[in-house]
Amino acid sequence: MEFPQQQKPAGEGKIIYPPGVKEITDKISNDEVVKRLKMVVKTYMDMDQDSEEEKQQYLGLALHLASEFFLRNPNKDVRLLVACCLADIFRIYAPEAPYTSHDKLKDIFLFITRQLKGLEDTKSPQFNRYFYLLENLAWVKSYNICFELEDCNEIFIQLFKTLFSVINNSHNQKVQMHMIDLMSSIIMEGDGVTQELLDTILINLIPAHKNLNKQAYDLAKTLLKRTVQTIETCIANFFNQVLVMGKSSVSDLSEHVFDLIQELFAIDPMLLTSVMPQLEFKLKSNDGEERLAVVRLLAKLFGAKDSELASQNRPLWQCFLGRFNDIHVPVRLECVKFASHCLMNHPDLARDLTEYLKVRSHDPEEAIRHDVIVTIINAGKKDLNLVNDQLLGFVRERTLDKRWRVRKEAMMGLAQLFKKYCLHHEAGKESAGKISWIKDKLLHIYYQNSIDDKLLVEKIFAQYMVPHSLDTEEKMKCLYYLYACLDTNAVKALNEMWKCQNMLRSLVKELLDLHKLPVSEANSTAMFGKLMSIAKNLPDAGKAQDFMKKFNQVLGEDEKLRVQLEMLISPTCSCKQAEICVREITRKLTFPKQPTNPFLEMVKFLLERIAPVHIDSEAISALVKLLNKSIEGTADDDEEGVTPDTAIRSGLELLKVLSFTHPTAFHSAETYESLLQCLKMEDEKVAEAAIQIFRNTGQKIETELQQIRSTLIPVLHQKAKRGTPHQAKQAVHCIHAIFNNKEVQLAQIFEPLSRSLNADVPEQLITPLVSLGHISMLAPDQFASPMKSIVANFIVKDLLMNDRSVGNKNGKLWTTDEEVSPEVLAKVQAIKLLVRWLLGMKNNQSKSANSTLRLLSAMLVSEGDLTEQKKISKSDMSRLRLAAGGAIMKLAQEPCYHDIITPEQFQLCGLVINDECYQVRQIFAQKLHLALVKLLLPLEYLAVFALCAKDPVKERRAHARQCLLKNISVRREFIKQNPLAQDKLVSLLPEYVVPYMIHLLAHDPDFTKPHEYEQLKDIKECLWFMLEVLMTKNENNSHAFLRKMVENIKQTKDAQCLDDAKANEKMYIVCDVALFVIANKSTACHLDSPKDPVLPSKFFIIQDKDFKNDKEYLSTEMRQMLLTGKPKPAPVLGAVNKPLTVPGRRIFTKTTTVSDTSNPSTNSSPLSSSTINKNSNSNAATESSESQTQENNENPVIKNEEGKKEEPSQNVTPDAETEASPVKRRGRPSKTAAAPAAAEKEGAAAATGGGAGRGRKRAADPNSNPSAASINIKMSKQQQQNDEGTKRQIDLQRWSHVSTEKEKARKWEPEEESGRAVGTVALLLGSEGDTELELESSPEGVICGRNDREGYPLKQGQSSCAAWSDPFSQGDTKSTRRGVPSGRQGEPNSGLAVKRRPVKVKSRL
Predict the structure, then answer these.
(1) What letter does residue 1135 receive in the DSSP assignment?
(2) Least confident of 224-233, 470-479, 1340-1349, 1367-1376
(3) Fewer C-beta neighbours within 10 Å, C or N terminus of the chain?
């Protein structure tokens, strides 16, 4: 604006004062000045802009008030009044000011600005004048005059600083409003905002200043909102210079740019319209710290509750999501932390985040995987709908993480969700159903080997699944319906948990009993053993041992502590008493001056495991009441999501399990009355469970509950005579367990049953046979003699030696229990009766055991058709073979019978594991494993697992390998824990299984041509199957011990065929193959053996010293072939159909057939010869069948997602030029390549119209029509070998040079069984985040041991066993394995004719 020439006032320069106001000079006092100025102020206040005469009259006074006397007056009252006058003067003379000098104007406005500081004190008497000053300036916009001043910015900066500094919480809304008006007019009407002025505003947004003066922040926030259109350009320019151009010197706030962006975005996103694209540029910076800062900023912007940035700026959002895969760990960590807020505030973005969180859940960094879990769980706890099933699936996977911290967070997070939504039903039944799998998943983790996992599952169960803090009725209701809803594997895990806790209570009780005995060395040794056993059940075994020793010392010194501990583990201890005992014991062991007490923490772990926090007498009564309500139909079963029948059955099962662990809690008339009601129910399982509960808990019924006794006896008699077989068994055992006059009671059952036996009515034979068998086993002295006549005259002659009915000739190898003929079921029970009768006698004085063993052997030799009349169906024969094999194995558990089992009978029993029927092999292997792992069977039976190398089904081989691992570890642990076991090493040390294995393989019915490569390769495979597990570690120079043992066997003769030169030669050849395998596996085997091995005289006859066998039975050529494989000429088109591979990439196929590669064991053979199918006949019809594995309690069910077994399918390439008639022989049927059989699932043949699969289904003739699918093409071994001309044998992962006449190609060829990609498998970001292997059962199964290898995430459909399955086991069935024909040809063999029908498979070494 132009400043006009100032007119001179009237009166020749005299200053005219308002009426009544005397002259104001420096001569008068300050009080007088103030008094006169007040009158001047009043005069100016009353004037308006239209008073031209007064304006001219008081012009001189206006100029006078701008003099130095007033502007620099030391009196603040004077300055305030002058400022008010000047403000009115600008108002009155607007738009022109009466002052012409720019310097004067600057001084005036700086003076007025200084006076505005008086606004700070709202309690000052002069505050109203200060407010008037502010109001006047804002209303008139007086400061706009300064725009024409060169240094106006200095005035504005000072003004803004003053206003931001004086604003406080005592100011009312009007003050803030006038300040905003004043400042906004300057911003909006000026040419722009300088950086210095912008800094003055923005500095109030920095967190440090914001916290100091919240009102200044609010003032700046309001100002920016008011001026957003004007100031946005200035803000964009500032951030452009700092972010893009890197000019940090342009402002002192450069280092706070990200804080400012966050605040400005919160104020109004429009302020950053031009800034956001600049952030996308910064996200791609090469500086990790800079990217981290930008990510932190954007995380707050995107995650803000009302933010729409993600939808408004999709490119920036996508760029930000890319930082989830940043190479910088803190950046990825920050992204994961952001996801939690984003999920909670923006559920619509969950889909975008899911894929990135999936990748991060496998991050190699533990902290990132941990935070992924925290992110998902926090969102889920706020609202379950915020997290989709995929996100919850990531948490579920992490329960198997390698790191304990991650696993713990995942498990605890899922437990919290379960408690909130399933237990408390905070979000309704729909949400509870969404996460109903959590309860099963958490309990499945109890199958993990880590004690930390087990302890956490127990803690979760006690605090989240069935909270112990609830009152008894509510607590038992939770348990009752939880148990009813659990899947099979979870129920087994829960039962195992109670079993482990009960076992630990027993150990503590035994320790306390030892404290009551006099001090002695033997007592100290026994105590040490108990302490070591207890320590194994606590985390960190090393520290646990030390702390348990210390705890034992404290127990010895503190009698009161022992009393409390005895009360805690007492069977009569209630849950409330247990809490008191735990509290008292903890108080005694607490040291106030010690902030952390690891000793106390370890003792707490022990107390938590042994304290009965759920079950006592009151709890059992509550469970029984719930059961009664379910029976009566008055319970809330339907509301809890279970049917009444399910609730009753699972309730009885629950009580049955608790009857093992808490038997004394059942002793009440009310409980037994309810159980009697269950005995009368039609449900067979319910009645069976009720009888078992009586058996476990009814020891005091006869003495204390006579009424219950009188009611129970007739029921038990009825069940023993006419109940189901299981009920009959439990009834007999119940009578034997709880009644004093058991002989009378059992006789009342035995006599009528023995008289009523009638083989012509087999349906009515099964229960009597079960009862008679168990009676003879429990009371042998009373019933052994009567049973002998029954066995001789009825069981053997009338039942087993006669076939009264003709079986169903449908060709199936296995049928369901319901389809088995009653006669065969009766025969199976008859075999079991024989065994029970003998086990009861425990002597062979009458030679009955010899006769029984001969009978069982004959049944195996005749393949189950003892009469050989061919009336029995194949499936019934399978049942009888299984029963016979199991019977011999059962008798072998009794020492007196084991001694009379001949080697031939042992071999017959062992060969059942190679039976043609998948279910026979499976069930026999389970029984064998259970007996071995409990140390009931002699060590020689462990050798039978070596024959599993011939099994065509990968799953069975994997199971057998895990059984071997488990048995070997159990035996070695037993030797360590029991010093006395050193005297029995021959029967316990796993290495001593090798002589039995060599002898068993030497008498293998398939081992007929000891110098033929194919047969030697099979022998090597079986040997390696066992030796691989034994030689995992070279403990105590065991490799040399094995070598020495095999060498010693070569210096003996076969006790079974002492004078048979061919049989001895076969044994020596097997020894040479074993030595060859050991030498190639170990470099330490040639050292001196620590001990001289002892060989079993039952199998080997030691020769005179003059006898020396140093002959090499394997030629150099044969050794080379065993090492590298037998070379075969490749046809011209041999490589045409071979899939091209790239090192480092795994070959995956999407067809139903299984590729030639499969999963290797963790210790793959160094001797492997691989076979690659390079050219298979595309016309060969290949079928893939399913196999169902019904595992026992220690081996849960294994299924894939569809409930079907993974089965290998095979391609067969017959060669017409090599067709020849198969050689007939006795023993195992001949093997053909035309009939590769897949394992037959139980009942699967019914769907296919029959067809007996021997481990695998046979492939149909490619030229036949569908109706001829059941016709088998029989081919000799020579023909099969010629068929394999299209396959190349190569060494394990070796570089092979393939030469032909015209070319040489260097190729990398993977091992057939390797299961890996050739080279290395690329990991996502690292192995630490890989998912550990998880059982795929319903809903997901029980967990096996965690995958300790890197780079192998869980594959879809991959299945595993709870305790034994190995994801990297010996692999899938090869497509080149030989099949088995349906016909059985025999071949002469020394000794008994041993028959079995396994599929002989290709070497997996």
Answers:
(1) T
(2) 1367-1376
(3) N
